[in-house]
Amino acid sequence: MGFASLRDVRAALLPTPKMWRPRSLWLTSLAVCFAAYLLTAHYTLRVNDTDATNWPAWWFVRHGTFFLDGFHSNNPWFVHAGVHIVSNRMGGVILFGLPMQAVFMGMYVSANAVGALTAALTTSIAMANMAVVFRRLEATVGLALGATACLALGTGMWTVSSTELWTHTANVFWLSCALLALTYNRTLVAGILVAPVIPTRPHLVVVIAILGLWLALHRRSWRVLLHFAVPALVSLAGLLAWNTYMYGTSTIGGGYAGHENALTGSTGTLWPFIRDIAGTVGSPLRGIILYTPLIVIAALCIPAGWRRAPDWAKATFVGGFVYQVVQLRLNRYSGGTAFYSNRLVLEMFLLATPLVVLGYKDWRERSPHRATVTRALTAASIGIHALGAFLPRTYFFPHEQHWTTWGPVAAVRYETGPAIAIIVATVIAGTVVTVWPLLRRRTALAAEPAPAFAAAGAATSG
């Protein structure tokens, strides 16, 4: 072939660092993520939550109304509101699915299949946006791609956001667009792009509030605060208008109004809150450490990242943390039953990663072994989620099993052959990725010429 080494092959196939402009990085990340997501999206799997999101959009593009009178379904989230049957899902995510449903309007494709395609595409765009965010924070190309892979494939982004049209799908799309705008210091654009999260998941308003106040105080500019406040108020007004039209009540909860405890399982008292924190961190079925062990490295990078981060990255990190606290007060840690990994932390993960990536470089340089550990934990996180991505029928467990069942073990138990094949492939790939840089470093050190003083000493003694 004429290639002297694998390095020559890589140089021939991949762009050089100078060629990795934001557009190239964005397109590469989009292509890789979209390919992975297309393979694993849930085109036929029916989950009540996303089913109740997709069909109202499908119904609207064919009948011009979101009222589902005449639509026959046993989905418990289709409820009576006055004289009409409606979905109790948030308006923001239903509207988010409209464009793709309109594209497929004249085709015999189910609403859920179109919703899955929407999820795969928009989550891919979100991950591509984050790759550029990392690069604009002066991460190397390798670090930007690696961090994107961790976020895109080593978390519920792969097994939740990209598989079906959840509220998180719309949220990570809008939040990533806003973060990208912030790297260009376009605060008004960022404010406009982040505002749609309010009709999708209203308590994300705390992120907008913290971001606007933080930047306004840090930059001593009330104009910056208005850049976030005005679009947020318009978005809130849109949410109230939707809820008034659909449910006959101008409350923020909309279809959830009066049913919060029944739908979320949270009582708002102290003990369930402590339980939900523990469950989010370490329960077998939802614990983020058990599904994304790389989170340990991320936590260690926070102090260094805080010292280096720009004001907006600090604000989004704090906003994501506060949002998660509010989320755990509103919703039990399990977040339901019909998905793999943890879905309720996805917004926090996305908002925290810019600061974490900034801190990783300093944290890694303190020891030559830290990069190796990071690569191994990255491979583990991706492998764990690969089981859920490729084996989606192995994780429908009731709430009682959240402290007794771990997703990967369940996958091996119920689909032994495919699960073992995925594990073997992950171990092989993870070993190569982890060990190859060590071997290359040893080879480079062995090839270095001896220092001049050592060569002179050898000559003298001879």
Walk me through the structure.
The chain is mostly helical. 68% of the residues lie in helices and 2% in strands. It has one domain (30-447). It has a two-stranded antiparallel ribbon. The protein starts with 5 loop residues before the first helix and ends with a helix. Residues 9-13, 259-263 and 453-462 have low confidence and may be disordered.
Features:
disordered C terminus, two-stranded antiparallel sheet, mainly alpha, 2 strands
Indicate the proportion of strand residues.
under 5%
For the termini, the CA-CA separation is 44 Å
Q: How many separate domains? A: 1
Mean pLDDT: 89
The radius of gyration computed from the alpha-carbon positions, rounded to a whole number of angstroms, is 24 Å
The largest sheet, given as strand count, sense and whether it forms a barrel, is:
2 strands, antiparallel
Classify the secondary structure makeup into a structural class: mainly alpha
Instruction: Give the CA-based shape.
Output: globular
How many alpha or pi helices? 22
What string, H for helix and E for strand, traces the elements in order?
HHHEEHHHHHHHHHHHHHHHHHHH
Strand order of the largest sheet: 1-2
Instruction: Provide the helix percentage.
Output: 55-70%
Instruction: Give start-end ranges of low-pLDDT stretches.
Output: 9-13, 259-263, 453-462
Q: Strand tally, please? A: 2
